[in-house]
Amino acid sequence: MLWHPSLFYGGGLMINTVLIVGFHRSGTSLLTGILYRTGFFYIGEKSDIIGATKFNPYGHFENVVTMNILELCLTSYNFSWISGKVSSIDSCKKILNHHIKNLTKKAEEEGKNLLIKDPRLCLFPDILQKINFKNPVVIVNTRNIQDIINSISRRDNLYIGQIKSMIQNYNEGLNKWIDNASYYTCYEKWFNPVMMREQYEGLINSVLVGQPERQTKALEDDIFNKSVSLIDYSIVERRTHGA
């Protein structure tokens, strides 16, 4: 599988909006960070990009304004990121469309693709129909369900029952996203948490070396040919996170 060139190459070519969708603690930050470091993607002003924390030592690579709008939408239904259920984006449609329009304009000015990642996207599968993304490309990221439970438990000190209920709700939305996805990736197939630092830095070095064609080839060799394919509906694993 080869990535469409415009997924990486700005500067006059078609600009895409790339949305990375997956559970909390499923590896979306690592994947988004690697793409962002290629230089072909725009997330937002540097002051708006959520940086490193104890449990995300390389950064979250989320736009804080985008996150706050999605959280505001959940709040309008008396939900939070923990208690959220699959919902409509309608209550924040106007403000989110305005925000995305501004981000898209800035991305185009820099000749880059717009890159959006936030686990809350799982809960808003109708967002593709109601928000004016330019040429949306959806990457659905998954991870072993027990590893997600363990990671959320360590980070947020939630009860296992709370986490399982949350995952069930996110899973409902994620399955709808899968039906609209261009690419599908599984964290364990391309990343080894035991060698996180060495592997991450190796991937970063490989994608930052040479011309754009070489960078794209490095990404394909190191990550995507191992984990991402055009959605194949015969793959039973595509419903990986059944709760």
Total of DSSP H or I helical runs spanning 4+ residues: 9
Q: What's the level 1 CATH class?
A: Alpha Beta
Order of helices and strands: EHEHHEHEHHEHHH
Radius of gyration, CA atoms, in whole angstroms: 17 Å
**Major sheet, described briefly?**
5 strands, parallel
Question: Would you kindly provide a written description of the structure presented here, covering whatever features stand out?
Answer:
This protein has 243 residues and is α/β, with parallel strands linked by helices. It has a single domain (5-239), classed as Rossmann fold, CATH 3.40.50. Helices cover 44% and strands 9% of the residues. It is built from 9 helices and 5 strands; from the N terminus they run βαβααβαβααβααα. The protein has helices at residues 28-37, 64-76, 93-109, 127-130, 145-156, 160-178, 187-190, 196-207, 212-227, and strands at 17-21, 41-42, 113-117, 136-142, 183-186. A 5-stranded parallel sheet has the order 2-3-1-4-5, with helices on both faces. Helix 2 runs antiparallel to helix 3 (93-109). It is globular, with a radius of gyration of 17 Å. The chain starts with 16 loop residues before the first strand and ends in a 16-residue tail after the last helix.
